[in-house]
Give the backbone structure.
Amino acid sequence: MPIIHPIPPVFDEHSRVLILGSFPSVKSREAAFFYGHPQNRFWRVLSNLFGEPAGETPEEKTAFLLRHHLALWDVIRSCEITGSADSSIRNAVPNDLSAVLQAAPGVQIFTNGKTADRLYRQYLLPLTGKDAVCLPSTSPANAQWSLEKLLDAWQVVCDAAQRGDI
């Protein structure tokens, strides 16, 4: 039975960066917001890069993202998935990125991990024509990447978000 993505995208007309994950984990679906697993390093990475806490609530995290010109969503709108394992994603249906891309046409796209990147290239690149930069996953399953290595790799997000008006 397919699971429908329960979290709306975060974006506005000032977004300069769009970060795409694959599909929300069980913990994220329970929390009704992105990267809800306490061991996922996504919010820690962004907090470190931008030099301020991302917040605890979905509202605080949304405000943090928008303040730093970041848009956030996932590649997949619905799929069959076992638990939170990206490797188990089957019968994927992609999200429609047109609202984000119309609101912020100059947005630069980054994918959080290889699965999100593969799914983006398979389903969305042909529609958007916008290449994506694949970043190492912030998932706890990506244990070979320390927080320090993630910060180095993800610095490009901070740089892109802080560039001048587009």
